[in-house]
Amino acid sequence: xxxxxxxxxxxxxxQKTTTFLRRVAKYAIFKALTDSPxxxxxxxxxxxxxxxxxxxxIRKLSRSFLPENLIAQIRQxxxxxxxxxxxxxxxxxxxxxLKDRKSKVENFASQLPESCRxxxxxxxxxxxxxxxxxVSNPAAxxxxxHQAGFDAADGGTSLEVISTGMHxxxxxxxxxxxxxxxxxxxxxxxxxxxxxxxxxIRRHHETSKTNSAIP
Length: 215
Fold this sequence. Notes:
Blueprint: H1 2-10, H2 17-34, H3 37-49, H4 54-62, H5 70-74, H6 80-92, H7 95-109, E1 132-134, H8 138-147, E2 153-154, H9 171-179, E3 180-182, H10 191-213
Antiparallel strand pairs: 1-3, 2-3
Helix pairs in contact: 8-10
């Protein structure tokens, strides 16, 4: 099996070093922007002035592969710099970062109403690379978070609900995707910022309960 896999892979073209370096540059810019609230806010303001949906723009720019002809794009042998980066990441990977992030998000989530806690909350292997919460009226929460200075997004990501003709339509999964809001917890927020994030979500939850109770 190994020989067969190697033979197939050997037929693939090798990723160009320039292609890899362009991706490194692109994501370095993304990292610099997200680490600077002022710079990121200025970019969002500029996109709004141009009438652009910043979520749509960011999703498009952040994708590693275009949806068209995906298989041809991923059937490449890694470039030498990519292999070196992979070797470095494996050799220097620090599991304490995952533990710290898990602890931080679980502390944040424990302050939320139970129905608003992140999907998968309480699972031992959850490391919260993303933090999706379920709420009523996601658009209203996203707007409230924006006003408070937090950039959140809805469930319109590359995640898709898969349905086949052999089984009934996965209605629960579709309903969950409609309620998702990805909140930005993987940042160096201080306790004040995290408390503000919790307060916005709790207020939205209480407002949604009140509105649903009105006949």
